[in-house]
């Protein structure tokens, strides 16, 4: 079983619609959680950190469920520019490696 | 610098040849990580450094892969006797140390070095 699992997609989303997807992680000792975005095999870039209480950044909302060991990302009012691969990333304490999920591909279409 | 700088961007090697990749982390960042990304977006952790010391090398295929982060030099990842399956994009990332109470854990990635083994 992979440490971090994601639905690879693609999620085909009409422009303006809402899309949501999850990832699950296996290490219950994980302490840090992130969503990264990767465009066309370029370098991953941090989209947002995920906090226990859930957090929102503009059109993006992230949730963490420690009991069930899953993280979710919701994108509202999808834009064409949201088309990318979204990587669920889980880590331990400071300096520890971050473990990446396989990514969920999102395609926003007009 | 203010960005993680990786060189070369592209490298082509024949099977059995040596490949060496370089990474200059963001100035002031203590941690350096190497990841290998093969097809289907699978990121594989290779090794991390805290300054010039190996912090975690659990992902390194030790028989052919080696890495260093020496003072006042770019970090390097070297593959001896490359194999076809080493073809991948190798990403270097750096991060700041966390404070006592907060660890953002954010990794700042370089643009990657694409290694093609023929």
List keywords for this structure.
heterodimer, A: 110 residues, six-stranded mixed sheet, 11 strands, B: 118 residues, mainly beta, seven-stranded mixed sheet, globular
Structure description:
The complex is a heterodimer of chains A (110) and B (118). Chain A has 110 residues and is mainly beta. In chain A, 0% of the residues lie in helices and 53% in strands. Chain A has no helices and eleven strands. Chain A has strands at 4-6, 11-14, 19-25, 32-38, 45-49, 55-57, 60-65, 70-75, 84-91, 98-100, 104-109. In chain A, strands 2, 4, 5, 9, 10 and 11 form a six-stranded mixed sheet that branches. Chain A has a five-stranded antiparallel sheet with strand order 1-3-8-7-6, with no helix packed on it. In chain A, β9 and β10 (98-100) form a beta hairpin. Chain A starts with a strand and ends with a strand. Chain B is an all-beta fold and 118 residues long. Chain B is built from no helices and eleven strands. In chain B, strands 2, 4, 5, 6, 9, 10 and 11 form a seven-stranded mixed sheet that branches. A four-stranded antiparallel sheet of chain B has the order 1-3-8-7, with no helix packed on it. Chain B is globular, with a radius of gyration of 14 Å. In chain B, 35% of the residues are buried. Mean pLDDT of chain B is 89; it is low at 99-103. At the A-B interface, β4, β5, β9 and β10 of A face β4, β5 and β9 of B.
């Amino acid at each position: 079983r992979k440490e971090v699992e994601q639905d690879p997609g693609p999620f085909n989303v009409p422009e303006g619609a809402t899309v949501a997807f999850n990832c699950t992680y296996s290490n219950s000792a994980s302490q840090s959680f992130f969503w990264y975005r990767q465009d066309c095999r370029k370098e991953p870039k941090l989209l947002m950190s995920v906090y226990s209480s859930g957090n929102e950044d503009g059109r993006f909302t992230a949730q963490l469920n420690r009991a069930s060991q899953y993280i979710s990302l919701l994108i509202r009012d999808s834009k064409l520019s949201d088309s990318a691969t979204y990587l669920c990333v889980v880590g331990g304490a400071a300096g520890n490696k971050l473990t990446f999920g396989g990514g969920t591909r999102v395609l926003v279409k007009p | 610098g203010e960005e993680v700088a990786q060189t070369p961007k592209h490298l082509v090697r024949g099977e059995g040849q040596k490949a060496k990749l370089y990474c200059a982390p963001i100035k002031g960042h203590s941690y350096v990580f190497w990841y290998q990304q093969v097809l289907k977006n699978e990121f594989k952790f290779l090794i991390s450094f805290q300054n010039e010391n190996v912090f975690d090398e659990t992902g390194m295929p030790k028989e052919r892969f080696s890495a260093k982060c020496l003072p006042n030099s770019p970090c390097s990842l070297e593959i001896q006797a490359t194999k076809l399956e080493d073809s991948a994009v190798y990403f270097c990332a750096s991060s700041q140390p966390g404070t006592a109470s907060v660890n953002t854990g954010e990794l700042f990635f370089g643009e990657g070095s694409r290694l093609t083994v023929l």
